[in-house]
Structures are given as structure tokens and as C-alpha cells.
Amino acid sequence: MTTTTLTPKSSSATTTPKQRARRPGSIRSIGDIGLYTVLVVLALIYILPFLVQIATSFKTEAEAASNAVSLVPQTFTFAAYEMLFAHSDFPVWFANSAFVTVAVTIGRVFFASLAGYALARLRFPGRGLVFGTLVAVMAVPQVVLLIPKFLVLNQLGLYDSYAGMILPLLVDAAGVFIMKNFFESIPRSVEEQARIDGAGAFRIYWSVVLPMARPALITIVILSFQGSWNELSHFIVSAQSPELTTLTKGVAALASGQLSQGTQYPLKLAAAAIMTIPVAVLFFIFQRHITNTTGGAVKG
Amino acid sequence: MGVAARASSRVGSRRTSVARRGEGSAGWLFTLPVIVILGLFLFVPVLMALWVSFSDWTGRGSPFSAGTGFVGFDNYAEITSGGGLPERNFGIALRNNAWYAVLVIPLQTALSLFLALLVNRAALRGRTFFRISFYFPSVTSSVAITVLWLFLFSSTGVVNQVLSWVGMNGPNWFNDPRGIVHVALSAVGVEAGPAVLTDADILGVSWWDWLSGPSIAMAALILMAVFTTSGTFMLLFLAALQSLSPDVDEAGRVDGASTWQRFWRITLPQLRPALFTVLTLGLIGCWQVFDQIYTGTQGGPGKTTLTPAYLSYESAFTDQRWGQGAAISFILFLIIVAFTVVQRWALRERGVAKRRMRQYRMTARENGGAS
Amino acid sequence: MNFRALIAGGTAASTFFALSGCGGSGFDDSAQDSTDDELTSSNSALTVLYGASGDAEKDAVEDAVAAWSKESGIDVTALAATNLTQELSQGFASGSPADLFYLAPEQIAGYADNGSLKPYGDLLSNRDDFYPSLVENFTVDGEFYCAPKDFSTLALVINTDLWDKAGLTDADIPTTWDELDAAANALTTGQRAGLTFSPEYQRVGVFMAQAGGSLVTDDGAQAVAESSENIEGLEFVRSHLKGGTFAYATDLGAGWGGEAFGKGQAAMTIEGNWITGALEADFPDVNYQVVPLPTGPAGQGTLQFTNCWGMAADSPNQEATLELVEFLTSAEQQLEFSAAFGPMPSVESAGDQWRSDNPDLTAFLDGADYATGMPTDVGADEVISDFNAQLESLKSSDPEKMLTTVQNNLEAVVG
Prior knowledge:
The complex is a heterotrimer. Chain A is built from 17 helices and no strands. By secondary structure, chain A is an all-alpha fold.
């Protein structure tokens, strides 16, 4: 399984003879200087927008328009944040996003590992059918489900409720695949002993196999946290009450000017910056896990 | 779950064979939540929407109530050959999205592969820093990025200020509906298309307008897509690169192949599975543009950022034409499936490539399951 | 068997799904017809859905609703929509829409068609007090659907400081196209346009009206977009956009005319009553004056905007809702709304009071005499948004071609 084997040790594949001749990590040739220049310029292009965003959120509206580039506000102001937290529904949006995200993440981790284990290990009639259906399901693009999901939630009486916002997100076929692949990589022998001891399937799953699945579970946590925190379209079609508005929906309304007049860039950028913080924190905590394994995870 | 665990331990003394036999029910039970939820929120919705796309439901009460009638393919006909606004809107949306896909897919694939090759070197200082930098935009939400983009590309925004340093007068990005091909043509004096292109049309959009290129506003969104997806795809390529065997590359070098030749002849063919994954994910993602449009442009300026996904939403939720909205989403579904199939066919393993790989004594591993 | 507990759990789970499956309102919606004058009546609390232009409107609506609730003893919740049209649609489809809501004239026909609306206009005790042109705006197939909430017209707003700086006097205030042309010319500088407005029919249309054109005939029965009058109006705008004395607000980097005007990117703008509140809040230092729009080749012309209080056919308590509407549209309450966030009262009995309260803004109310409303046919709003999309590139396109498209699109929806 790729999650554990992709440590960055192995990549001597692209070193050239010249490079091999010297110590790793030293910068000598003109070619190297060129390489680092390219890398630094690219990194700046990728990072600067976010720095500008943070700087602008502390600027006055006039300065945001007149001097967009500067990274240091001339007049440093918390006005945007004050507005967001004291005079808008922003705290409600944040709380909703947090609640839904935590619920979805817990649900996905549990359901995906449960089903993944069954598909990897348990022999039951119809397993092939379930698996095949999951493959087909993965092919359905989420965006074409906008209208359908609204219709069904409405019909079930779940529209405009937390249940309607959370339940449809609880299962994600890709997560089941990741877990299935992982469980298949565990040698069967670990379960044999438990089975001989008379443990049932759920017991084996819960107390033997699941604790070993940490790397894959982290992958699921990351994917579902990020996925549900950043989800927009589903919340548009599943709820409308102001008290059920999530961050994505609220900030989208803010951005498209439905809640205000004028450009209000500091305010919008502050809102966008705050909504980026939780995923950014998650990202930095699991940074090594992500940059080393997401490739494997996405592939399923 | 505590109850279940206790229950299972209570009967723990049963024999293994019994447990084995219990696998049937356990298997179904374990997969039941997934089956129920996917069934209820994916399979049933699709069937319901299919019915709506064949009905005249106008959005009041249940689509299954007595007042709703079956209208056959009317909704589909209206958007593909009706001759009115719905057809034109659909044509415009397809035009916009096609240009978006045509530009985003090659750009994001090339850039992410380039980034992966750069950061794949073992002897790279600050490798982790670079990887984080390139990947970070991928974790942020499309809403947050769109807000940032609206600011960066506003008329007095960062991009235009930077352009002004080098003496360029940047366009008013998100308010500029001119297609970039048309802009380029008008720079060489071509203001209007030849009659042969302007008089004939497909889906209510003239050939000349099909060829307009993405609008300046859409170009900004294209850059955004490349910016946000390149990190994810970089990681995919990186995983594939790291599982390549160095032997083959070594052999190529012994044969006297240059770096460039070895990249094209050796590395790239071995990356084929990863390339297929990236292209497929890119293609699927490119036809699902919705969040950015909902947040940022609502289809404007001049409908040049209208996409089928957004049009489907708008038809149903704001214009009360639920049947047409559902029909658009099914056509979109077919488009995505068709493109994926075509791509799979185009990138299928060809005999020649295989022979060349063998020639370089590729170790049999189909590199780490990159498909 | 060790799975019994789990199976029990699974059964519970499926029961839960089954329950939620039946708990909905969806399956037995009978499309009751609501053409009669019967209003539903019950003890249900009311919900009001509105789209606020800002905090001022939000507070005003909530205060008014709370006041009525206290007076009548009926609970009312006022919900500010983040996306009004979408939330209305979702409400109607779910069978439990808000009882009362903001509704634009161009949406009435669509919702009337599918039976979502309760037509109650003729039941209003203050029915005859509304301006007739507004009543007409909310009448579909001879049925007066809903009470006009308030209204606005467009006028010319002039930055007086920039006006003086350009050496212009009161005598230069434009009353004709030629004078507008001259004033815009005098006010245009390198960084500033003379006149700005949004690239949409809802602004540009005033020039079509002043040239004598319109999109549909007065009775709404025929599309007349492709007329020489309309072409003349658009040509006038187009030539000035090209000349740089007029500029679209979006081209100046602003969200709307008021913003560009407030930031000093343009010296004049064409906007409605709402601009006064916005300028006060965002650009309090800007001095301005509101004058009637200039007369075109065919006389005076402006556009009029209005929303009504729509009532849901599915509302269980229409009697109380009607009382709430009468309260909200009373002269007294509308004057309060007007003071809070700008639009003009929709009842004639409030006119004189409004004039004396707002002596500087009478140009807006005067416009009511010659203003044109938006077409109300089903699908007309999509035609207009398509027209707006084309207007964005007016500078580089052919007005006649543009209007031909509009004409074709309109013919498909009119009559």
C-alpha cells in the first residue's frame, strides 16, 4: 500500500552523473542556480496571493482599492474582523460548518472503514455486485446531482435540516476504496488468531484491524474534513434557513454582493482567510502524511 | 457500538466455522450504511431527476403529484433544438466550458508534471517547503479562492498593478466579455468574422462566436483552476515518479540519450498510468465548474462564464424550468462519460510503447498501482 | 449469533431511514386552486422572507414586523434571504414556503402559472390608494396579485463639487440630450468619466425610453424591441461610451453606479432612490444633487422599479397575512421604510408627506408620472438578462443586431 511505502528516500532516479559526483544538498553549478531561481519564483507565485489576502484584510477599503499589492497596511485596522464577528452572522456560519464537518468526518471514517473491511475480507453473496455498484457510483459527477438531491431531500422531508445537510455526505465511495485497498494490504494472519479466539467479524474489525489502519484512517479524515468544510453546492440545495447557513454559502453570498453593496474587499478577504484556517491547520498537522501519500490515496 | 462489542464477546466461544458462516450477514450489515445512503441520496435522486427531465413539473409541491404530466423528450428538445433562449444559453454554456477544458487540462497537466519533476530531486534543499507551497492552494475551498481571485483580478487589483510595473495596461478581467481569440484577431485588424462563420450557427451560437475563445473573465478562472489543481496533480505525478525504477533511466543514459530524450522516451511512457489518472480527473473536474461561477460571476460578464452546471442550477432554481434544468444535467453527465471513454481509448497502452519499454529492460513492476 | 445486536442496530437504522422517508410533506400535495376569494385562516405563526439591501432595510423590516406581531398577537418570523429567488423556489417546491415575501413583477407570471401565488390584491382595504401604474405592474391576466411594497425611479445624480470645479452652473443642468452631452464632456477628465451607470437595460433603458422606444407595447401584448427609437437610444449611449464621456461602472472597477460615483470615478450617475442611503453610509463626504433625467427626442422617460408583497397559496394563515400586508403598506409605515432605506411609498396618500420630508429628492417621485416598468411576461426576465449580457459589449457591437436578438427572444415569450 502506497500510504506507507512512499517515503522520500528512494528518488535517485533523476540524478545526473554530474550530480551524483557530489554531496547532496550543495548548490554548485549554474544549472542549479537556474533551478532554484525557477523554484523560488514559482513558490512566490503560489504563496504571495495568500499573503496579500491577509494583508488586505487589515487594510481600509480605500487602501485595498488604491494599493492592492502592498503587504503592509498603511493604516492597520481590525474593522473587517470586527464587522464579521460582531455585526454579521459569520459566527453562526462558522459554527455550522464546524458541526457539519465533524459529524461528516466521524461518519465517513466509520462507514468507509466498515464497508471497506467487508469488501476486502468478508465473503458474502453479492459482494461483487456491491463493489461494481460502488465503481459505477464513483463515476457520477456531483454537480449533476444538484437538482436531484434537492428533490429527494424535499420528498423525504429532510430539506432545510441538519439531517439533510449531513446524511447525504456521510458516505463517499472513494473512501470505501481507500479502506478496502488498505485492508487488503494487511496480512490475513493478524486476524486468524482473533478468529481462533472466537471473535466475531465486528470484534475483529473494531479491535484488531481498525487500530492498524491509522495511516488510511488519517487519509479519510483529511479527505472528508477538507471535502465537507469546502462543500458548497450540497448546502445550497439542502437548506435555506439563515441559521443553517455554512461558511461556504455565507461567504459566497457575501462575495456575490447579495448581502451588501460595494466591493468591501477587506471584509470578503477576511472572511475567506478565516475559512481557510481550519483546513490549513489540518494540512500543516498532517503535512508529511499528505505530501507523501495523497498520491496513493487519490488513486485509491 | 459498545452494545455490539459486548454482544459479540458474550458469544465469543462459538467455533470459527460458525463465525465464517456468519460472514454473509456481516458483510451485508457492514456495507448496509453505505448502500442505504448511496441508494437514498444518489440512486433515487438520479431516478427522480430523470422523471423530472421528462415531465412538465414547474416546481410547486411534489413532482409526483397528479398535476405533473409526462412530456417525453420535450425538455431535451427545447435545449438542443428549440431555437429560443434555452437553446442559445445551452450553446453558450457548452462553448464556454469547452474552451475552459481545452485550456485548463493541458496547462494543469503540464504544470503539475513540471513541478513534480522539479521537486522530485533527491538533492533539493527546501524540498518540503516547495512541496507545501505548491500544494497549499489545493486545500483551500473554491469559495475562498474565488473571493481572493475576484480581488487579485479586479480593475485596480494586484495583477493589474504588477502588469503596470512592466508597462502593460491590464484588462478589467472579471468584467471583460471579449473572447481572447477575438481580441487577438482585432489586434491584427479583424473586427468581424466572415459571413460564412457568422451566418451559420450551432445551438443558437454562430460559428464565429464558438471560435471566440474564452472571455477575459473566463481566462482568469482558467488561471485559477490551474493554480488550485496543479498541487494535487503534482503529488500524483510525484508518487508515480518515486516508484519508477532507476535502472531504466540508467540504461538510457548508457545508450547516450540526452536528458530531454530520456524524459520523452523513458520517463513519460512509464508515467502513462499517472498521466491517465490526471487527465481523467482533470476532464471530469473541468465539466463540473459550479462553485466559482456561483460565488464569483453568476455567468457574467455577457454570459461568458456560464457553464452547463451553473445553467442547470439556474434554470431550475431561479427560472422555474426544472425539467430543462434536469435535462441539462443529464446531457452533462453523458458528455463527461463520453469524454472519459474517448480519453481511455486514446491513451490505451500501445504496442510500440510497450516494446520500447521492454527494450530498456523495464523491471516488470507497473509502478506502484498508479491507476 | 454475535451479529444479532448489530442486526438489531441495523433494523433501528433502517427504521430511522424509513421514518424520515415518511415524515416529509411531499407525497400528497394536492394542487389546490386558489382563484376564489377564500383566504385560509388558522393560528399558524407567519414567516416573512425578504432580501435586504443592507442593515438599514433589515432593521426596518424586522422592527415593522415585530410591531405588527405585538399588536396582533400573532407570531411572525422575518427571514433575510441570502438568495431570494433560489429560496423562494425551494420553498414552493417543498410545499412550505414563507407566507409573505418580496416578489419582483417579472417573477409573478411564472409563479402565478404554477399556482404558487395567492392573488389577494382586490381584497386589500387600501387597494385604491396604490398608484395605478404600480397596480398594473402586478396585474397578470386581469388579476391584481399583490400589493406594491414601495417603488423607485431613476434620476440623474450629480456630484456638485465636481460640477462647480468644472465651471458649470445651475443653468447647465442638462434637460436635453445635447446638454447632457455637453455637461458630460465638461466633466470628463483623464481619471474621471462624465456619466456612469451599470451595463444593463435597467439603466441604459432610460435612453431608449427617452427616444420613444420600449421593449413591449403598453398592454404588454407585443414585442417592439427592434424599433428605430430603441436603436437611436442605444446609439446615443454607444457613441458616448466610445468617446469616453460615459462609462459603465464595471469598466471603472465599481460594482454599480453609486460606487463609482461615490469614489469620484464619475461625476454623474443614473441611479434610483437607494443611492441616497448608500452614499450616506459609504461616502458621506460626497455632495450631490438629484435632478430629473434629461428629455430625449421623444420627451421624458425613466424606468420604474417595484416589488410587491407576494402571498403563498400554500400559506395556512392568509387572513392574518393580509392584515400584515395592510399594515406594511399603510402610508405611515411606508414613510418609515422610506426614511430608513430610501424607496418611495407606493400609496398616493403618502406622496405629499414624502415630498415635504425629502425636498431634495422630488425628482424621483416626479418620475412616477412618466416611468415605464419592466415587462412582466413569463420568461421576460431571462430575455432582459440576455440583453444585459449583450449590453456589456455595447461599445464594440451593433445595436441593431442586439435588438434583433432581443426582439426574437421576446416574441417567444410575449403574447
